[in-house]
Amino acid sequence: MRAKTVHAAVDGLAGPRKRARDHPSPSSPPSSLKTKLAKLGIHRDFDLVLHLPLRYEDETRLTPIAEAHEGAPVQVEGTVIDSQIAYRPRRQLICRIEDASGLLHLRFLNFYGSQAKALAPGARVRAFGEARPGFFGAEMIHPRYRLVRAGMPLPEALTPIYPTTAGLPQATLRRRIAEALAQCELDETLPADIPERFGMPAFRDAVDALHRPRPGEDARALTERSHPAWQRMKLEELLAQQLSMRLHYRERKRKIAPALSRAGALTTGLLERLPFRLTRAQRRVWVEIERDLGQTHPMHRLLQGDVGSGKTVVAALSALRAVENGLQAAVMAPTEILAEQHFRKFSEWLAPLGVQLTWLSGSQKKKERAAAAADIASGATRVAVGTHALFQEGIVFQSLGLAIVDEQHRFGVEQRLALRAKGLCIQGSGAGGADVEPHQLMMSATPIPRTLSMSYYADLDVSLIDELPPGRLPVTTKLIAAERRDEVLLRVREACRAGRQAYWVCPLIEDNGVAAEAPAGNARAPGRRPGRRQAEALQLQTVLDTHARLAAEFPELRVGLAHGRLPGADKAAVMADFAAGKIQLLVATTVIEVGVDVPNASLMIIEHAERFGLAQLHQLRGRVGRGVADSVCILLYQKPLGERARARLKVVYESSDGFDIARQDLLMRGPGEYLGVRQSGAPLLRFADIERDVGLLEAARELAPQLLQQHPEHARRHLARWMAGKSELMNV
Ligand code: ADP
Ligand code: MG
Description:
Elements: H1 2-5, H2 31-39, H3 45-49, E1 55-57, E2 74-86, E3 92-98, E4 103-108, H4 113-118, E5 124-129, E6 132-134, E7 137-141, E8 144-147, E9 159-161, H5 170-183, H6 193-198, H7 203-211, H8 219-223, H9 228-254, H10 265-273, H11 280-293, E10 300-305, H12 311-324, E11 328-332, H13 336-350, E12 357-360, H14 366-378, E13 383-386, E14 400-405, H15 413-424, E15 439-444, H16 450-454, E16 461-465, E17 476-481, H17 485-497, E18 501-505, H18 532-553, E19 559-562, H19 568-579, E20 585-588, E21 601-606, H20 614-621, E22 632-637, H21 643-654, H22 658-669, H23 672-675, H24 677-680, H25 694-710, H26 712-723, H27 727-730
Helix pairs in contact: 7-9, 9-25, 9-26, 10-12, 11-12, 13-19, 20-22, 25-26
């Protein structure tokens, strides 16, 4: 949540706070300060050096009150004429100040009595803020202010404003940062020719320029982060990421994994029994995976393929390869529904081959879970299928040879970290001892854009299924305004009467703009997130209402209901009934978004389609068009459509290519989506933005191997400076 709690609280702006805490002794900050700094990710002195300003304010000039206008924050100075506490519409302090040019109201909603007293008539105030036309005339709401003596000199340089957290004033941060700058070693970690080549300042100078801008420095370049000092810091950061990725990759190649080199009766058995032939693309990726699995170092391969391209069967072959080499496999999915479906599919394919499968999930009864855990530990289980519960405390595999993670990007960063950690501590004898890691196969229907695969995913190998199984009928997409809902109901009735099935997807309830928020790549201004609970409650209410309405509308049909709050077993039962055709119309939230596979379902209705993301619509649409019947996906939208919404729906309407759609999605929404960083708030890259700074990213990618080869000592020091304690987070 780090990026979320950071906000630019500014002196005199965030309301009352306890002054006594603001004066730490430099050597050992009091624990409350320590806690607050830790909230900002500051644990060591050097973190203060790297705690760079969010923006800069220009306090070097005074603006006459009459020239202070909406749209641009300015600094004014005036004398208090009067100050009063008003009680309507709520308690507030209104202070009028005046300079030679005019009058201005300063309005404070949170204030101390002492503040009100200090702003007495005759006091001289310097206030920084944005003036707006108010009820009484021009006003500044909660300006940052200080009392001054007449003629007190103005600062000569821009004032840095740091990301901070509640109760940690800018002044305290500034003091701590100045101390850190004086104490820390700021020598170069890069060979001198690198910054020279890019026309960038030395590290020490860059840090200094950002924390203590010199008089006359270009405020815009500093705020927009295009200043050479910022460029230097971004390159530093990207280089640290690249170095860490390379080392990680190398390290993996040095680690030991069980070589799954024997091709046995199980994989051949499955291929013989399948009702279809593998596509050429499936065969190609299987060869790539087979080759990796036969190596003595762990595979970390990402299997990409559009919705419906047939990744599951490749996963099943891989699992069987582990089993026929005497080891276990684990298959993990991000949702209970999807995991349950894999369990069914794997049972259908693997059980006839005599492979012992075990189901494990968080919603299971304690007793069942204990029994599953015991089978996994004893080795009775050959393939375990479940949610991330598979990789939690207390689950110990006897000899895990392969971990398969479906819809990998759906897992939070923490879960991915846990998985990595689990990989490091495989126990038991079958796999050959404590230092042995299992192979990992990750799967995703969401293609990784180039900039992401160059950065966060740089340590993975990638396989691509770029072909759909033959005979797939394209899904017809229709855009229909919500007012024509009756026609849509008619279609549902017809489809179900003809023996087919339909999904009815309920709208997302927007979470007060959180969904539209910028990716958390950089520290940004306030990310308050009200309304998440409320949005979830509304969401639930909507799906319940819709279900009730549709059930009343179609008394002759069996109408099912699936949503995230349903207990796991109930959800599984509904999905099983739908898969078996006992339910004809399934009303659901986006819980069905990933991977659900019911070939007889040929109609999908998505309500308020304008609220969904592109990738999400494509994923949802991918639930139909899996069987023999002509499939239709109806995007119901509410009029009037905004321009952006119209553009988005047009993309989905016109394209059925997931990769194409994903590219457009990245352009519209930024990379945070792919990384799951929104949920986790892991720091990732703080200064560089892989899209905007792609040039620097490319440079870092080129420099990293050179540095490792020619200047290993520099590389080591660079990583130590940038990555202390964070290395795992840079490559999840
Ligand atoms: P995804 O890549 O989205 O996970 P699935 O693995 O669920 O796709 O496959 C979608 C459907 O296509 C499944 O019903 C699966 O059995 C079927 N399928 C997979 N491979 C082939 C193939 N080569 N020929 C025909 N059908 C296939
Ligand atoms: Mg799938």
